[in-house]
Amino acid sequence: MTYVVTDACIRCKFTDCVEVCPVDCFYEGENMLVINPNECIDCGVCEPECPAEAILPDTESGLEQWLELNAKYSAEWPNLTSKKDPPEDADEMKDEEGKFDKYFSAEPGEGD
């Protein structure tokens, strides 16, 4: 089992999860984070820290596409190991549906 970041993170990019991760397995894209499934130790401390509820265990059904996306982009995007301020409109974007089709960007973030 591993944890995955879903589209609920897009344009919210809260980094509370990064701050508590003991193995630094988060990677930063332009407008979302992903978890490297090979580095995640399944401790679960990140899941309750996410204000957008974007982190889920991969044992939940229907998350295959998110596991693939997390694996792909964690190999391409820079590592993020410290908390950053979220975008100014993060709270407004938190509950929006269909964010992947509307806003996903494959561009990397800044990382640390």
Architecture, CATH level 2?
2-Layer Sandwich
- H/E element string? EHEEEHHH
The biggest beta sheet reads: 2 strands, antiparallel
| Average pLDDT rating | 96
Strand pairing plus helix content: what structural class?
A: alpha+beta
Strand order of the largest sheet: 1-4
Question: What is the CA-based Rg, rounded?
Answer: 12 Å
Portion in beta strands: 5-15%
Q: State the share of residues found in helices, binned by percent.
A: 10-25%
Instruction: Estimate nothing, just give the exact number of structural domains.
Output: 1
Stretches where pLDDT falls below 50 for ≥5 residues?
Answer: none
Beta strand count = 4
The first-level CATH class is given as Alpha Beta
Distance between the termini: 27 Å
Number of distinct helices: 4
Name the shape in a single word.
globular
Question: Which fold name fills CATH's third level, the topology?
Answer: Alpha-Beta Plaits
Give an overview in words.
The chain is an alpha+beta fold. It has a single domain, classed as Alpha-Beta Plaits (2-Layer Sandwich), CATH 3.30.70.20. About 20% of the residues lie in helices and about 10% in strands. The strands form two sheets. Strands 1-4 form a two-stranded antiparallel sheet. It has a two-stranded antiparallel sheet with strand order 2-3. It is globular, with a radius of gyration of 12 Å. The N and C termini lie far apart (about 25 Å). The model has no long low-confidence stretch (mean pLDDT about 95). Pfam families: DUF3470 (PF11953), Fer4 (PF00037). Keywords: 3Fe-4S, 4Fe-4S, Electron transport, Iron, Iron-sulfur, Metal-binding, Repeat, Transport.
